[in-house]
Amino acid sequence: MINTTWLNTFKTLVEVGHFTHTAEKLYMTQPGVSQHIKKLEASLSVDLIIREGKAFELTEQGRLVYDYACDLATREKALIENLTFDDPESGHLSFSASGAIVTALYPSLLSLQKQYSGLRVNVEAAPNKRILESVADGTIDSGIVTASTQHPELSTEYLGQLELCLIGEKEMVSNMSAYEAIRQQGIINHPDAQYYLQKIFDDSGIEELKQADWKDFHKVSYINQHSQILQPVSLGIGVTVLPKVAIDYSEYSNNVDVWPTKQLVSEPLYFVQKKRRKLPARYSFLLDVIKATKFS
Asked: What positions does the domain HTH lysR-type occupy (predicted)?
């Protein structure tokens, strides 16, 4: 590895052109400058200058080393400038949330990327546990979860409530009660269906659902592709429970409806990030998009 102190002395000598003036500029003695040059030459096993009395000429190897020193100085200056300038319009945005939330946010994030070509949007749909693990180990920078965390490395910011809806084909919702539809048509199952449906049973205020239990109902289909969960529902094959935003951004939204509840069924949303890490300025765009999205 090249000694950068010796290299800087050599670069200064070439630019100043005089040993004494170089020593004055670097607050060194003239013998100290000569010693640095000799040590640099010895470490590289080449002659860098040809001495002619008090003057000198660069060898071909000296020119190569000087060019390298100049390039290194330029890169160092650029690095320092980049470290002190946090460009809000460029860099990676890494983010994770449930499929429904990603579906709601992604169009706005793509619009941002189109507006600011320097942004790189990396989005992953994942359950709460994986989001927390990924933020904690640095795989992603931020996420949205539906439960606060006591993880010592993470901090959370409350965003609002995520509304959950019991969803069926439009005509079915008009003609059947929620309980009748679940009992007769069955459930379109997905990774969060049991948890969401239990929330509907417990919190909706619908009397006939209070004693309902997941195991009592037939599961007519299972799908883990979030964008396709509402397809069988729109065809009247079964009913399901999803966040309201999943309907708003679905291609099947015109063919489905929700059963009204006496009470809003929802769960809290939290923005999560590393506790002691300040996110770059570009994440202000992400937070603006999140806060502008209606989740209930």
From this structure: 2-59
Q: Residue 126: which domain range?
A: 90-160+268-292
How much is the pTM? 0.71
Question: Do residues 73 and 94 both lie within one domain?
Answer: no
Residue 148 and residue 287 share a domain? yes
In whole angstroms, how far apart are CA 23 and each of 36, 280, 290? 11, 42, 58
- How far apart, in Å, do the first and last CA atoms of the chain sit? 60
Measure the CA dihedral 201/202/205/206, to 10°.
20
Summarised one tens digit per residue, pLDDT across range 14-39 is 999 989 999 998 999 999 999 999 99
Is 197 in the same domain as 286?
no
Q: Quote the number of domains for the chain.
A: 3
Tens digit of each residue's pLDDT (9 = 90 or more) over 104-124: 999 999 999 999 998 999 999
Helix axes 30-44, 4-16, angle to 10 degrees: 120
Please enumerate, as own/partner, the contacts of 275-280 that have beta carbons within 8 Å and a separation of 24 or more.
Answer: 275/152, 275/153, 275/154, 275/155, 276/153, 277/141, 279/141, 279/142, 280/86, 280/88, 280/91
Query: Rg for the chain (alpha carbons), in Å?
Result: 32
Choosing from 57, 84, 111, the residue where a domain stops is 84
CATH number at 127 reads 3.40.190.10
- Cα torsion for 173, 179, 185, 186, to the nearest 10°? 130
Torsion sign (Cα): 202, 204, 210, 213 = negative
Residues 275 and 155 in one domain: yes
